[in-house]
Amino acid sequence: MSFVGNFIGKSKDEFGKENIREAVTIILFSYAGMFSLFVFGTLRLVKSEIPAAVAIYSVFFVVLLNYIIFKIRKKTKFAAYVIVALVFILMLGIFSVIGKNGTGLYWYYIYPLFAIFLIGNRTGSIFSVILISVTAYFVIFPLDFMITYPKVILIRVVFTYLFVVVLTNIYEYTRVRIQKYSDKMYSEKSEYLEETLQQKEEMSAINEELKKTQEKTQEQAEEQRMLNEKLFAQSLKIETAKEETQRKNQELNQQNEEIQAINEYLDKSQQKILKQSEEYKILNSKLN
């Protein structure tokens, strides 16, 4: 809960930016109004001006009731219109019967601030113009119970009052435009930040995927290295077996050559024996 949220008894997010401003203005005006009404009512009571004191206290209790209802229901528009209407009636009361020595009109300059700040430029200006129009009518055509004002002062009051209305309108219009621009910039900034965060999350997901792919590639490379080592070991075994086979083949070839030489020797011996046998037979035949 922010300070404003604590001040109005509700969180800022639930009211919204513009309603927060209206809510704070309503509460500040309510506090200031109740304090002023209580003080002025008490002064009137001390001076034994009972009708004026009763009227002021009546407005005080209406403001208090409106404040309590606002705190419960959180309806800013209703509370704002009640305050503007009460101040409207109070201004007419100060002008007609409460203001002394022609000072009632001096309070009129605060009314555009109440009206325009609380209910907006257009409606607040309408209320402000109606107030000064009604006042001008009663200055020109006063009733019997009303305080009389010099008609010459009316022109000065009307022009200065309308000047305050215009200045208040300019201020409120500028504030609204700046607020809208600020909200737009904030919205664009929020969208940009949201997109940036989304892109960051996407990049994180991509990096995570790349990291997994890299780990998988490293595992595959390690498996390939181990397979290459196995293939190399098998290649060495094959090479060794091949050399062993060649050596054995050479030994077999050598043995074959030796056997062939022995066979040749035996063949020669056999031929020699056959030749000697032939000679022996010839010799025997000669002897017989």
Describe this entry's structure for a reader.
This protein is mostly helical and 288 residues long. It has eight helices and no strands. The protein has helices spanning 3-8, 12-15, 17-46, 50-73, 76-98, 111-119, 121-140, 151-287. Helix 6 (111-119) packs parallel to helix 8 (151-287) and helix 7 (121-140) packs antiparallel against helix 8 (151-287).
Beta-strand proportion: under 5%
Mean pLDDT over the full residue set: 81
Q: Provide the structure class.
A: mainly alpha
Question: How many DSSP helices?
Answer: 8
Query: First CA to last CA: what distance?
Result: 152 Å
Q: What's the Cα radius of gyration?
A: 58 Å
Question: What distinguishing features does this structure have?
Answer:
288 residues, rod-shaped, mainly alpha
What is shown here, in short?
The chain has helices spanning 3-8, 12-15, 17-46, 50-73, 76-98, 111-119, 121-140, 151-287. The protein has 288 residues and is mainly α. The mean pLDDT is 81.
